[in-house]
Write a structure and sequence with these properties.
The complex is a heterodimer of chains A (about 500) and B (about 130). With about 500 residues, chain A is an alpha/beta fold. Chain A is about 35% helix and about 10% strand. Chain A has helices at about 35-40, 55-70, 90-95, 100-105, 115-130, 145-160, 180-185, 205-210, 230-240, 260-265, 275, 335-370, 400-405, 435-455, 460, 475-480, and strands at about 135-140, 170, 190-195, 215-220, 245-250, 270, 290-295, 305-310, 315-320, 385-390, 415, 425-430. Chain A is globular. Chain B has about 130 residues and is an alpha+beta fold. Chain B contains four helices and nine strands. Chain B has a single domain, classed as RNA polymerase II/Efflux pump adaptor protein, barrel-sandwich hybrid domain (OB fold (Dihydrolipoamide Acetyltransferase, E2P), Beta Barrel), CATH 2.40.50. The chains are: A alpha/beta (about 500), B alpha+beta (about 130). The interface of A and B includes residues 401, 421 and 479 of A.
């Protein structure tokens, strides 16, 4: 049988290298050449030449194209990675981000020359504020986790100004691991609160945990199980009564936008993951953005500088904010990401924002309804994502990991597995608004087929995947002996 | 079906306790725990001389799919650490009650052992 072409090994770029091969001809220098050790301190000089591959341009292009074909991405197929919100990133975002007037700006340009960029940032801030129901915003944080960190520092600054920074922040046991990490980074103790049987925060348990050393409560909404915190108004009342602040991890804002607003629910602070809710790309080496929006009582503490607009529509940066927690990012944030999020919101418009959230909820309801007779939902259906359990397959010797691996043979990315930790053998699937009903059916058919295979031929499922560029990897060895450096020859 | 030896004590957090002398206990994780965790890739253990209270976290264990905390089944002082599992964490998967043991404690309050589960109770706890 002919080998699947995707399973042919791809040599590393160094193996293409041949001494003296060049892609471009570099012109002769037109300034006098001086020895490097005259120009640079000795500590900055290499002892040996770097082992760079010598390859012509087309070899580089073919090499990376070949690798990209082996990769999975949202431009290629369905990517139901729960919690991550792998929605499609519209190509128009890339077009606007590359407009010369935006893409070629230099951060050292005088503010008079970048008024258009400032206007875009201002308008994005206003749109995000409106969606969040908040009074003030910073676009600086470089990612959701940094947004969280800024939020925790705002909590500290607020309480310090009241005379006591307080000691603890309460987090539910379903929360993303970044929440407790953030809290500790900001000098607080993370107090874990057990979720109730519905997977929600229990106001009675919260009340018992609140005291005058609790600085705040971090509560994702809908939470990490995809459940709306239906007691949120009671929770907000309790937290505020105890003198604390209520922080919303906005990781799942894509389920709420246009429907309800964190500010209206009683939250004081929310961070917004532009790469989740507002379609800027995930990772890939590119930067992210995690704007933080707050109620007016926290505005004085926001990072500097704050963008301001005068009566005639001129924009400037306000650095004179004595209570600010300081600067959290070089220049004004990751501007290219902001352009993409701005474009996304403007292309959708207010009705489109609402439709997008509703479609994400509808897609998940459809997917959950098709799967719930087979896969368990220990906490019930979620809003925009659902956390299934694969524990029922244990009797056949099949684990969630095996289901995830077998799914790859159907050309879809596996859902998030083994998270959140409170669901045994968790399978966390998030379809997003992107997918059509036909695509959702293909995914559900595959999931149901795998459940049948697990019963009838568990060995077959255990040995999956069969069609991917590499078969099942030895993940334990990869973790125990992480050795990813190429040590072979050079050319 | 997990192995739950009759001669050991267990915590609800899936640590086992073996009494090796009157006031010295050996602690590790149960066969059920290693099976649930899957392939263990990293174990972080305390140092000899450190003291812990019952229920306090004394180390972490990292599997391919998640990181978990290790909790003290009884208070005491660390007298010996199994350094070889830090070098070869797979020993915890292969032999959790034998070569995969983690730490030995000099008991601070021997009565605390009465709060632990016997094999039958632990078997019920894990639903097997």
């Amino acid at each position: 049988m002919e080998q699947n072409p995707l399973q042919r090994p791809t040599p590393v770029i160094f193996e293409h290298s041949r001494e003296g091969r060049r892609g471009t001809k570099i012109p002769k220098t037109d300034v006098p050449a001086r020895p490097l050790d005259e120009l640079l301190p000795k500590s900055a000089l290499r002892k040996a030449q770097p082992a760079l591959p010598e390859v012509p341009e087309h070899e580089v292009v073919r090499h990376f194209t070949a690798i990209s074909l082996k990769n999975h991405h949202v431009d290629k197929a369905f990517y139901p990675l729960g919690s991550c919100t792998m929605k499609y990133n519209p190509k128009v975002n890339e077009l606007t981000a590359r407009l010369p007037g935006l893409g070629d700006l230099h951060p050292f340009q005088p503010t008079s020359g970048v008024q258009g960029a400032f206007r875009l940032m201002w308008e994005l801030g206003e749109m995000l504020r409106e969606i969040a129901g908040m009074d003030a915003i910073t676009l600086q944080p470089a990612a959701g986790a940094q947004g969280e960190f800024v939020g925790a520092l705002l909590i500290r600054a607020y309480h310090t100004a009241q005379g006591n920074p307080r000691k603890k922040i309460i987090i539910p046991d379903s929360a993303h691991g970044t929440n407790p990490a953030t809290v500790v980074m900001a000098g607080y103790e993370a107090v874990m609160l057990e979720s109730n049987a519905e997977g929600r925060m229990d106001p009675t348990a919260l009340e018992a945990a609140l005291d005058d050393e609790v600085a705040g409560v971090m509560l994702t909404n809908p939470n990490t199980l995809g459940k709306f915190e239906s007691e949120i108004e009671t929770i907000a009342g309790l937290v505020h009564e105890a003198g604390g602040l209520l922080y919303m991890d906005g990781a799942n804002l894509n389920a709420l936008m246009g429907i309800t607003r964190p500010g209206d629910l009683g939250y004081d602070i929310v961070h917004i993951n532009l790469h989740k809710t507002f379609s800027s790309p995930h990772g890939g080496g590119g930067p992210g953005a995690g704007p933080v929006a707050v109620k007016s009582h926290l505005a004085p503490y926001l990072p500097i500088p704050i963008l301001q607009r005068d009566e005639v529509g001129g924009y400037s940066l306000d650095w004179e904010r004595p209570d600010s927690i300081g600067k959290v990012h070089g220049f004004w944030g990751n501007f290219g990401v902001l352009v993409r999020a701005y474009t996304y919101i403007r292309m959708l418009g207010p009705d489109g924002v609402l439709d997008t959230a509703r479609t994400a909820l509808l897609n998940n309801a459809y997917m959950s309804a098709r799967l719930e007779g087979t896969y368990q939902l220990p906490y019930g259906r979620g809003m925009h994502e659902s956390v299934f359990s694969g524990a029922f397959l244990k009797e056949h010797g099949i684990r969630t990991l095996d289901v995830a691996k077998r799914l790859l043979d159907f050309g879809v990315h596996a859902p998030t597995v083994y998270f959140p930790l409170i669901v045994a053998e968790a399978i966390m699937a998030e379809p997003t608004e992107t997918e059509t009903v036909e695509e959702l059916d293909r995914f559900c058919d595959a999931m149901l087929q795998i459940a049948v295979e697990a019963k009838n031929d568990p060995e077959f499922v255990k040995n999956a995947p069969y069609t991917t560029p590499v078969r099942r990897l030895d993940e334990a060895r990869a973790n125990r002996q992480p050795d990813v450096r190429y040590k072979g020859g050079h050319g | 079906m997990s192995n739950v030896p009759e001669d050991l004590l267990y915590s609800e957090e899936h640590e086992f306790v073996r009494k090796i002398e009157d006031d010295i206990i050996e602690i590790g994780i149960t066969d059920y725990a290693q099976g649930e965790l899957g392939d263990i890739v990293f174990v972080s253990l305390p140092k000899v001389g450190e003291e812990f209270d019952q229920g306090q976290m004394f180390g972490t264990i990292e599997a391919v799919k998640a990181v978990s905390e290790l909790f003290c089944p009884a208070s005491g002082e660390v007298v010996e650490v199994n350094g070889s599992i830090e070098a070869d964490p797979a020993m915890v998967n292969n032999d959790p009650y034998g070569e995969g043991w983690m730490v030995r404690f000099k008991l601070g309050a021997p009565d605390e052992l009465d709060t632990l589960l016997n094999a039958e109770a632990y078997g019920q706890h894990i639903g097997e």
